[in-house]
Here is the input.
Amino acid sequence: MIELSLRHRVGDLELDLDFQSEARTLALFGNSGAGKTCVLNAIAGLLVPQAGRVVLDGETLLDTSHGLCVPASLRRIGYVFQDGRLFPHLSVRRNLLYGAGAEDAAGRYEFAQIVELLELGPLLQRRPRTLSGGERQRVAVGRALLSKPRALLLDEPLTGLHADARLQVLDYLRKLKRELQVFTVLVTHHADEVAALADEVVRISMGRVVRQVPIAEFIARRATFAPALP
Amino acid sequence: MTTLAPDEWQALALSLRVGLLAVVLALPLALALAWLLSRKRFPGRVLLESLLFLPLILPPVVTGYALLALLGRHGPLGQLLGSVGIVVAFRWTGAVIAAAVMGFPLLVLSVRAAFDHVDRRLEAAAQTLGAGAWRRFTTITLPLSARGIVAGCVLAFARAFGEFGATISFVSNIPGETRTLPIAIYELLNVPGGMPGVQRLALVSLLVALAASASATLIAGGAPWRKRADD
Here is the structure.
């Protein structure tokens, strides 16, 4: 469960939004520049807002009114960035292990499980610059999951991928949702990604929440949601 | 041209030792200061940067005098060091300090430029994966700026290798102890019949400077053959 309120000014954008959700996969849907990534950054601890509160599964990660801000490195939030942000000097294996815990039996099992789930085996020895866009995103998802996150943040994970890679990564994300029980926040401006992955949708526009609906309602009344533009 | 005379070899060996140790001495502080200037905004930053550039701007003799005033037997730090049996003025260790001080601004500038080029978003990604400040620095920032750091070390070594003004003011010209290569050249210039020695040592200096400059360029920009292979 997430509870979030945020007041922050970034350039011309004034963020002023509140929402809470008990959905397992929550989509933040809206145009580029609406403030969706700022919300993810505030959850991850990469953005400290002028005022705000973030509570995840009952634990307060940020509460500016009490001067509380848990550092990003201690929040255990897996963040899959739009551009992957794999470490270019490390192999895929070492990227995956960067945030993983101890290399004990449980850790090795978990590593093997994620590698199998995302079919990363053939990529382990390669460097990020030799990977395709889809492969990079799969590694980024695997790396985030191996850090044993309490929440997974996906920032436009399919943007910039060609059609085949997009479908492929979308399939992997569906598989993850089925097989792993991780609370996920998905940021996207594609309605089909929302329909495929989310349980609940928060529509954000110009830094404000304009609607919050369960996925069934989003699908049924998709046409009434103004199409999000990239 | 004949080979180097024994005292010329001695001067060359001393200069190489002084240059290398000056870099070793300056590097940790240069890394810390470069990181601070690259990553943090704080009051007094302009003053710190101005102080950093002083050895580049001041006449080297003045820097040498300042070192003597500070670290000489009667200087405040010199007395402190003397009380634990450490003397640096008029010793080869003092030549290392003088060379380190003179090479320090170049080293900090190179390392800072290397840190500035590291994609900060990668450090943020590491942060979300649980890496604290020290781990981010050692596993992301340092490896990704390694070329710039090594290039800076080479430049600082070259500066230290050729150091003259601050060294002669601080540690004088003591054969076998503080007579580095530039000081040996200067002395030979003032000795009748010293010209062949001057030419030999000047040629050695030229070769060392060329080697340092070429390796700094190759390291900082990446060797052209490696670039082609990567593309």
